[in-house]
Write a structure and sequence with these properties.
79% helix; mainly alpha; Growth Hormone, Chain: A; single chain; globular; 426 residues
Length: 426
């Protein structure tokens, strides 16, 4: 009888992603409190987000290669430990500059999350299950923000905003202990029997030399598939950052109080979480029905584009709850799309460079988010000065909707068949 230990590994990846996004979202949830205490303008807040994104980009450049060299166990464990330290440190800062420093440290360490998860999934799951596994892992991006509003705001309102950072930041330390004792490669795990190992390695290339070949970053950058992944992340990651960091402010600008925003944010991420898991299943379902990997991945991505596009019409909504539901479905479509995009790395590249390519794409997403954060701050301050803050949000939502259509087309042009990327072996 086949063991299913790979799902224990998937559970750990899901929990790490959940903790990751709790630590990311907390600054947005506490923004209405912190901007009153520290007298932040929209530009000040954007600068804090900018430094998170800037160090996140730097972290991606280094983390993907680092994880390919030391492995997912050491690489991910160290990353979660460091980002937990940074998350707790947020509760001890006293100035806006201090927040820039603390959030920068958090971003630098959190950059390892997707490269490490992607590498672990490539090691632990067969091709036909990777999309579903990635979808479940990525659903942590929505489960974290789903759990965060009630927990973070309750701690902040009943104790202090400092306590909110300390409590949520400490969760990562517990995870690191579990990861250390439970994770290893499937070939080295005593918890995996022969039947499961055979299932995991099914349909993988028999040429282990190709799978283990070391490829330099400059050589990876000569491949169109690398640039397709980079540009897809560059164009779309900023959208989820906007939802994560500015959604609370958007709701308060629509007349909701600081305590009322918890419910709509919870609704947004509850719907997003359900869509994320079901979307991860969809691509795997197409494969089981006989579709090619290319057709399965691309069909799912274009379905997501259709769900995202309604955000361009959010300006015509005169009910904040209608806007909430539009954003919820767009957010869910984003995470499904992101999960499929992540899966295409292991579809196209050898395992030995999955972390590196994931890091290159993550760098692109971080740079896009960094530039967007500065732009959003400047734009909203300008529209606020003109007493037309909603006009600024409307323009941003239009950009959010069109980003996915553009990115999907660009990705398809650069990876039209999701073919295996070949590297010469010397």
């Amino acid at each position: 009888m086949r063991t299913n230990y790979r799902y224990t590994i998937l559970g750990l990846l899901f929990l790490a992603t959940t903790i990751n996004y709790i630590d990311r979202q907390i600054i947005g949830l506490l923004k209405p409190i912190l901007e009153g205490e520290f007298k932040w303008t929209e530009k000040d807040y954007a600068d804090i987000v900018f430094w998170f994104q800037a160090m996140y980009a730097v972290g991606f450049v280094l983390s993907g290669r680092f994880i390919d060299r030391v492995g997912a166990k050491i690489g991910y464990g160290l990353a979660v430990f460091v980002w937990s330290l940074a998350a707790v440190f947020n509760g001890f800062v006293k100035t806006t500059t201090g927040f820039m420093f603390a959030r920068g440290g958090l971003g630098f360490a959190e950059a390892a999350s997707f490269p490490a998860s992607n590498k672990a999934i490539a090691e632990w799951f067969p091709i036909k299950e990777r999309s579903l596994a990635t979808g479940i892992m990525v659903s942590g991006c929505t489960v974290g923000p789903l759990l965060a509003p009630a927990c973070v705001l309750w701690i902040a309102n009943n104790y202090s905003w400092q306590a909110a950072f300390a409590v949520t930041g400490s969760l990562g330390f517990i995870w690191v202990i579990a990861w250390y004792f439970l994770y290893s490669k499937p070939q080295q795990s005593s918890r995996v029997n022969k039947e499961e190992l055979t299932f995991i390695t099914a349909h993988q290339t028999a040429n282990t030399t190709v799978e283990e070949v070391k490829v330099s970053i400059p050589k990876l950058l000569t491949k169109k598939a690398t640039w397709g992944y980079f540009l897809a992340n560059f164009l779309t990651d900023a959208v989820f950052w906007f939802y994560l960091f500015w959604m609370p402010s958007y709701l308060t600008s629509n007349g909701m109080s600081k305590t009322e925003i918890a419910l709509p944010i919870t609704v947004v991420y509850a719907i997003t979480a359900v869509l994320t898991i079901s979307g991860g299943w969809l691509s795997s379902y197409f494969i089981k029905r006989g579709h090619t990997i290319n057709s399965s991945r691309k069909t799912t991505m274009f379905i997501c584009v259709a769900l995202v596009l309604p955000v361009v019409l959010i300006q015509y909504s005169h009910d904040v709850w209608v806007s909430v539901y539009i954003v919820a479905f767009a957010g869910g479509a984003h995470t499904v799309w992101k999960g499929v995009l992540l899966t295409t790395v292991s579809d196209q590249f050898p395992k030995a460079v999955v972390g590196s390519v994931s890091g290159i794409g993550g760098f692109g997403g971080a740079v896009g988010g960094m530039l967007a954060a500065k732009g959003v701050g400047i734009l909203l301050d300008g529209y606020k000065a003109a007493n037309n803050l909603q006009g600024g949000y409307n323009l941003i939502f239009i950009c959010c909707g069109m980003a996915f259509l553009t990115a999907t087309v660009v990705f398809h042009l650069l990876s039209p068949k999701l073919s295996k990327v070949e590297f010469s072996i010397k």
